[in-house]
Predict the structure.
Amino acid sequence: MGFAHWEEGLDRRQRAMALAGGPVMSLLVALLLGVLSLLISQSEVRQFVGWIATLSFIQFILTMTPLTYPRWTGGYSGFPSDGLQLIRIAKEFKKAS
């Protein structure tokens, strides 16, 4: 997981795209490695690639879960997840229309 910061000035659509980029990439990596693990014939390598795919998918789920990170998450403590921020942006869209 990473942490991104940008200066003010992005509109709601740009913020939504920036926030969704990380989880979408995690999902794409999970899908690509999942397919790759099915095509690899060597069992140890297949298992390794499969585990990385699984961990990438778990990362996608965790970042898209709408929550404020608890204290035990260290540097993320108190910050909203990407999923929570995307929900807030969607609510802003709804209010604006």
The helical segments are 12-39, 43-64, 82-96. DSSP finds three helices and no strands in the chain. The chain has a mean pLDDT of 90.
